Amino acid sequence: MPDSHCHLDIADGPDGSWLSTEEALSRATSVNVTRIVQIGCDLPGAAWAVQAAERHEAVVAAVALHPNEAPRLAAAGELDTALAEIESLARSSDRVRAIGETGLDYFRTDEAGRPSQRESFRRHIEMAGRLGKTLVIHDRDAHEDVLDLLDEQAAPERVVMHCFSGDADFARACLDRGAWLSFAGTVTFKNAATLREALAVTPLHRILVETDAPYLTPTPYRGRPNASYLVPITLRAMAETRGVALETLCAAVAENTEAAFGGSW
After folding, report:
1. Nearest to 265 by CA among 49, 210, 257, 129
2. Cross-referenced Pfam families, in alphabetical order (predicted)?
3. Was 5 annotated as part of a binding site?
4. Is 124 assigned to a binding site?
5. Is the pLDDT of residue 221 over 60?
6. Residue 220 contacts by C-beta under 8 Å, 6 or more apart in sequence?
């Protein structure tokens, strides 16, 4: 099984050193989670993602500027330079499969910072299309603007809605645009009935699974850092929500991940 969105560098850092990258990968392999998409969210993280993908057969990379990076970089006059560096990293290795996570985050960014977020998102959309990479979208409290910008910029062939957080209607709107919806440990939370309704209307061939590790740890392990070896917990909850056999869901998710990220690895 795959983990379609992970931050191994954060789990491996000084504030989260409970698991080294090697231990995280070993534990994942022990439960048959053998493929991981490592996500870079800023320039150091993007460079780390490429290096990790080159070092570890189980890992491929995604590189981008997180939407909350955009206002800071724009205020410093550094957004154009940073985007150029992201493109250089995306071109540097065939182990880079995606541009992401990019998008909009209206939870942490106020009105003053949103124009630069939207500009950064536009540039990432264009980059993904031009380079033939998958676009991995972060969307927090910005559903309609995300869709509007995707329509405005002509989205690339492959789009993944990371940590899908909308309701069934928003799921249908994303699916109408050809996106894969990636579900995280949040789908196991007691108060996530609306999210489970979205999962229920998502066709099997459009479902992905992720951890967003070290965040969004599934129930019953909330309160501890997340990691890829906990993917099976989320998958079991997803299979129950869909009313399908776990084996059926696993086979679909494995196939979907290859389709979404441009082949096997």
Report:
1. 257
2. TatD_DNase
3. yes
4. no
5. yes
6. none
Two tokens at 67? Answer: 């939407």
Q: Is 212 annotated as a binding residue?
A: yes
- Provide the CATH number for the domain around residue 240: 3.20.20.140
Percentage of the chain with pLDDT > 90? 94
pLDDT over 80 at 11, yes or no: no
Q: How many domains, the chain?
A: 1
Which range marks the domain in which residue 208 is found?
Answer: 2-260
Q: Is 144 annotated as belonging to a binding site?
A: no
pLDDT in tens, 108-143: 888 999 999 999 999 999 999 999 999 999 999 999
Q: Which helix (H) or strand (E) holds 37?
A: strand 35-40
* pTM (predicted TM-score): 0.96
Distances (CA, A) of 78 to 44, 50, 86, 167: 15, 22, 12, 36
7 is in an annotated binding site: yes
Identify whether 175 is part of a domain: yes
Cβ contact 106:129 at 8 Å? no
Instruction: Identify whether 265 is part of a domain.
Output: no
